[in-house]
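call fold target=Putative rna-binding protein
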Amino acid sequence: MKKKHGRHRRKKSKKTSTVTEDEPKHLKNAPHTFVIHRGLPSSMVVAISRDFRHMMEPFTASALKERKSNRIKDFVHLSGFFHVSHMCLFSLSQHTLSLKVARLPKGPTLTFKVHQFTLARDIISATKKQYLDEDTFKNAPLVILNSFSGEGKHLKLMATTFQNMFAAINLTTVKLSSLKRCVLLSYNPVSKLIDLRHYTVSVVPVNINKGVKKIVTRNIPNLSKFDDIADFVEKGHLLSDSEFDDEESHVILPQTLKKGNLEDNKSSLRLHEIGPRLTFQLIKIEDDLMTGEVLYHDYISKDSLEIEELRKKRAEKRRLKEARKQKQEENKVKKDADKAEHKAKTSSSTTEGPSVTDYQKKLLKDAADAVADESDEDDRKYYKEEIGEKPDEELFDGQHKSRKRPFIPKGFKSKLHPAKKPKLDKNRDEDRDNDHRNNKKMNKKGKFGGEKNRKFNNNNKKSMNFKSKLSPRNKFQKKNKK
C-alpha cells in the first residue's frame, strides 16, 4: 500500500466539562484522606504508598501527583476545599520507615514505626486464584479492630483515629452487597505491634450439592466429561473442592444476595487477602499538626516539672511568633500607604509638567536677553561699507533670531530647550579608529619605534660585544698564548 502524502490534521482537544452540581451531604461528610510520601527516594516506599492509597478508596485522592517542591502546608490548604479530614505520610530516613497519621487541619498526629510491609502485587501473585472484581473498590471497606480495649489513653486515641479514617456504616440501612472489603487491625499488648491486613469478602451458600454450588456461584462448568447435566449434579460429591467450610464462618443472612445466597438461609463467609500488609508500632502522639506538645512517647518519659518548662517555652515561642506576625502586617500596611502616596505625587508631577526653579528661570532670561541684544544693524552697516550700496529690505527681514545657541545650564531639561543628544555609536567607533591610526604613525616616526630606535639598539649590541671581549676568560686565554 502506498503511503498517502498530505498534511496531518491536528486533533482537537476536548474541553473538560465543568461540574456545577454539588455533592450530596453524605459524601461531603465522609472522611477523605491524602496519602503522600516524603524523605529519601525509594521505589518501594512509592509502591507501598500507592497500595495504601488504593486500600483507602473511594474516599481518597487516588491520582494525586506529588512534587519535591510541595510542602505539607500546600496539602493542608487544599484539605478544606476537598473535604479532606486525614493525611497519611510515609517518611523514609537513613534508619527507619515511619508512618504518620494526622487529623487535619490542627492535629493530633500519631507517629508509627514500620517494622515490616508487603506489597499487594506480591500477595496477589502468591495466591492461586484472584478474587478481585470491578466493583470491589467502589465502596468503603469495613473496619475491624481487635484488642484495642486495653488501659491507656493512647489506645483509645488510636482506635478512634482508625475508625474515623473510614466511612461510618449504618447497620439499619446498609446493603450487604456493598460490603465487599474489610480492613483488619489487630493490636498485640505484649509486643505493642499492630498488624494491618486487607481482605475481600465473599459469601457462599451452605448445605448445597457441590455440582449445584458450582453452577450457582461460578460460571458454566466444563461438561465435556459428562453425557448430561444430571450426571454432573448427581456426581457432584466426586468433584474436588479445595476450600474448607468452617462452621464458625456460617451465618444467617438478613438480606438476599446473588449467587444462591437467600434470606434467612445459612451461608459461609470467606476472606481472601489482597494486600498490602503492614506491621507497625506507635512511637509518639503530638498535640498539633506534625508539631506541638508530646502527649505520649513510647521511649522517653518526663517529669511534671520538665513538662511545665516545655509548655512555657512553647507558649513564649507562640507569643513571639504572633508579635512578629503583627509587626509584619503593620509594616505591610505602611509600605502600601507610602507606595500610594508616591504614586499620587508622580502622577500629579507628570500631568503638570517638569518643575523649573527660580535660579534656572533667571539663567534662561539672561540667555534670552544676550541673544536679543544682537541686532541686524551691524549686518546692514557691514554690507553697506563693503559693497557700497544699501541692502534690500527683504535680505534681513527674516533674521530676527541669531544662529548662536543660547546658554543652557548643565543637566537642565525643558520642553523649550531640550538636552543635547548623545553621540551615536558610529561616531565613537570612528574616533577610536582615528586614534589607532595616529598611534601607528607615532610609532613609525616617534621616539620608540622609528629609525632612531634602530640606531640605539645597534649601539647597545656593540657595547655588549665589547664587554664580552674584555671578560676575564678572554684575558686568561691571551696570557696562555703569550
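return ok
Residues 443 and 449 are 5 Å apart (CA to CA). The two ends are 111 Å apart (CA to CA).
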